Amino acid sequence: MTTRTLVVLRHAKAVHTSGLADRERPLTEVGERDALKVGAALAGMDLTPDLVLCSPSVRTRQTADLALPDAEILIEPAIYEAYPDELLTLIRRSDPEVGTLVLVGHNPGVQELVTELTAADGDDGFPPGAFAVIEVDGEWSGLDTGRGIAHWNPKKH
C-alpha cells in the first residue's frame, strides 16, 4: 500500500486593517518570518511537496510563496472559508501521482480537518503559521483517516 503525506498549513499572521477586504489582508512582519520558519521546518523534516493547494487570499499566497518557494502552487478558490468536508473533497481529487500534498488555508476549517483526520483533540491549537503532518495510506480518493506524525506551532519554535 502506498503511503502519502498531507501537510495542512494555516496561513501565517496577517494584518488587521479596517477598510481592507479580508481576502486582501497581507502578512505582518512576524507572519513573514513565521512563513520562512515553516519552510525551514518542512525542509528539516525532508518534506518537499509535489503540489500545494492554496486559498486565493493574499495571506495564504504569501505564506505559500515564502514557505515553499520552489513548489508548484495551485490557487484553489474553494479553500477560502471552506468547511472540513469541502477541504477533504479537494484533497480526494488530487492526482494519484502526488506523494506529498500541502494544503494552505484558514481556520477553523484547517484545524477541524486535522482533528477529523487524526482524531486529535486539538488542545495544542492551530495558531497562524501552524501546520500538521499526516501520513495517509492508499489513494487520495479514498482518504478518510490518517496518522498525525507532526504538529508545528510557530509560537513554540
TrEMBL record:
InterPro entries: His_Pase_superF_clade-1, His_PPase_superfam. It holds the Pfam family His_Phos_1. This is Histidine phosphatase family protein. It comes from Streptosporangium vulgare. The lineage of its organism: Bacteria, Bacillati, Actinomycetota, Actinomycetes, Streptosporangiales.
